[in-house]
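Dear colleagues,

For the upcoming journal club I promised to circulate an example of a predicted protein-ligand complex. I picked one with pyridoxal-5'-phosphate because it came up in last month's discussion. The inputs are reproduced below in full, followed by the predicted structure.
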Amino acid sequence: MELFKTYKLWDIEPVKGLGTTLWDKDGQEYTDLYGGHAVISIGHCHPHYTEMLTEQLAKLGFYSNAVQNSLQQELAHRLGKISGYDDYALFLCNSGAEANENAIKLASFHTGKSKILAFGKAFHGRTSGAVSATDNPKIRAPFNVTGNVEFVQLNDIEAVEKELSTGLYAGVIIEGIQGVAGIYEPADGFLRELRAMCDRYGAVLILDEIQSGYGRTGKFFAHQFSGIKADIVTTAKGMANGFPIGGVLISPDIKPSYGMLGTTFGGNHLACTAALAVLDVIENEHLVENAARIGEYFRREFCQCGENAESLDKAIKEYRGKGLMIGLELKDEYIGLRDRLLFEEHFFTGAAGANVIRLLPSLTIKEETAAKFVAAWRKLTE
Ligand SMILES: Cc1ncc(COP(=O)(O)O)c(C=O)c1O
């Protein structure tokens, strides 16, 4: 059997990782500033993570949600505490798309309404509801094109009000920072108005923190820079450092009933152990603070390049993002730089289209690694 070819692959096969370093099958070393798409939050093969997972695997890898699982309870308690959402409830699933799928269903169950408002350029995943709320016609099958989802432009509060005032909406879904789009932030003021407007018109506010959450921006969730609280927060990616997991944090106003949501694999013993190991490392190594600190380092290096504080690196048109969720929009003459960083200097980075390089490194990244990247960038753009 052949693989179903839906991915454009680099001809590189990593076989080993440690921290922010990867090695391919020929022994070539790479520095990883991409983290397999913002997934590697505590570095590859962190010793605490591998030890906890190995121990759990030898005890019990899986049992279904028909029995007690105190690892789930511990994860809910710890996640609530670290995120400031301790009065919320946690539903565990297996991926980001699945977390959003459940969030949309909850909004609809709770309000009895069927419409969802989403934003231009949004990406919420590839399952049915999540892809319907994703602003990319190329990945929406005819089945997923539904009158239940409308899109308005990010930061356009008047357009939001025009839709919500119809009274037809179960909820609004918005990314903490738009990732796949190329790193675009909702303004703090916009989020505050959006919060107030959801309250006014009885819509559930869903914050998709799947890429921007788990400390990446220098706060646990990116929307916390605006001081608001969401009704539902979705998480995945960095949550278990590569072990598949998704989480839905649910306001106490939204009441559960038996059978309302469910999953076979969600919240299994290995996934919870991986997520608990990640929280241990985030706390013990102060990784949220490190994300803010190294983010500031990158910002200084790329945004204060000349005589004044505002002069951008010569290859960059715009620097976007917060902490370690960075979008570097390239000037036209530097398009192709990402491939050169990979094949000539051996740095993995992310991208959005041809002209945006995305940096999504592990939150454990050290300043010397960041400096090594800046030096390689300067060498290639001289
Ligand atoms: C903001 C956001 N939401 C949802 C998803 C979907 O997550 P998954 O690929 O785990 O289904 C992604 C993945 O890139 C994402 O960036």
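Two points we might discuss: The chain has a mean pLDDT of 97. DSSP finds eleven helices and 15 strands in the chain.

See you all on Thursday,
B. R.
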